[in-house]
Design a protein that fits this description.
The protein is α/β, with parallel strands linked by helices. It has one domain (about 5-245): TIM Barrel. It is built from eight helices and nine strands. It has helices at about 35-40, 65-85, 105-110, 115-125, 125-130, 145-160, 190-200, 235-245; strands at about 5-10, 25, 25-30, 50, 95, 170, 205-210, 210, 225. Strands 2-1-7-6 form a four-stranded parallel sheet, with helices on one face. A three-stranded parallel sheet has the order 3-4-5, with helices on one face. Helix 2 links the parallel strand 4 (about 50) and strand 5. Helix 1 (about 35-40) packs parallel to helix 2 (about 65-85), helix 6 (about 145-160) packs parallel to helix 7 (about 190-200) and helix 7 packs parallel to helix 8. The longest helix is centred in the first third of the chain and has 21 residues, at about 65-85. The two termini are about 15 Å apart.
Length: about 250
């Protein structure tokens, strides 16, 4: 499959990024977990990539009961099957966000044999879900202003993703993940390297982001978040354009 940059960005006053060469992707994450709802959603989508996001369900046997994870997978699988059966665009591929593999930063960055075995075991437990997917979509969001640490994390998660023997299309974001208060709502200075890793190692990539997180979004007193205002001079956009030139 040709390398594609998919667009799931949601900045305020964001232009049509198809003009930049980015392709649309459909994302299901706010509806019910039942296959009827997912099938109906899939039947209405025009894009070539459908992502069914049930990350709220149990997914990691290292920290959750195996029974809960198995139940979560059963729900995911029924919905994935419904999306594949009912999708409007019959050539569309179906994936799910993260889960396969379980996103993990510190295990590959500060590894031990015990932690690596446990992580890989959790990822193998999730193979029953991966078997139903057309593509594997690991989460490769950045948490820290540490390019070397990010590279270790990304390469290890990509390696785990390819063990499912499916095309790999990771989620990345031009700004840091909101879970780290020190880097929250800041753009990533090494985003060009993130794109290069995905271009070199993966089949395609999904760009997600554009939300400025307020304290209220994180269960704290204060203002709610809002879409980040679009800026045509974004440094990350220059990096996207650089990579797009290599694809033409």
């Amino acid at each position: 499959m040709p390398f594609t940059i998919y667009n799931l960005l949601a900045f305020k006053n964001q232009p049509d990024l198809k003009a930049e060469g980015l392709e649309p992707v459909s994302w299901y994450s706010r509806g019910g977990f039942d296959p009827v709802s997912v099938g109906k959603w899939a039947s209405e989508q025009d894009s070539e990539l459908l992502i069914v996001d049930f990350e709220a369900l149990c997914s990691d046997v290292r920290v959750q009961a195996a029974e809960c994870v198995a139940q979560g997978h059963a729900q995911r699988i029924e919905s994935i099957k419904a999306a594949k059966r009912d999708k409007k665009v019959k050539s569309a591929q179906v994936g799910t966000y993260a889960v396969c593999p379980v996103s993990d930063y510190w295990t590959p960055v500060m590894p031990s044999n015990e932690k690596l075995l446990a992580w890989r075991g959790s990822n193998r437990f999730n193979s029953v879900l991966a078997d139903e997917l057309d593509v594997i979509c690991p989460s490769l969001y950045a948490f820290y202003d540490d390019a070397k640490g990010y590279e270790k994390y990304a390469l290890a998660n990509i390696e785990e993703a390819y063990k499912y023997a499916k095309p790999v299309i990771p989620f990345i974001c031009p700004h840091f993940h909101h879970s780290n208060k020190d880097t929250r709502n800041k753009m990533i200075p090494y985003f060009g390297r993130i794109l290069d890793i995905c271009r070199e190692r993966c089949d395609s990539v999904i760009l997600w982001g554009g939300w400025w997180f307020g304290p209220k979004d994180l269960g704290q007193p204060g203002e709610s978040g809002h879409p980040w205002p679009w800026d045509p001079s974004f440094a990350w956009l220059r990096e996207v354009r650089r990579v797009m030139k290599t694809l033409r």
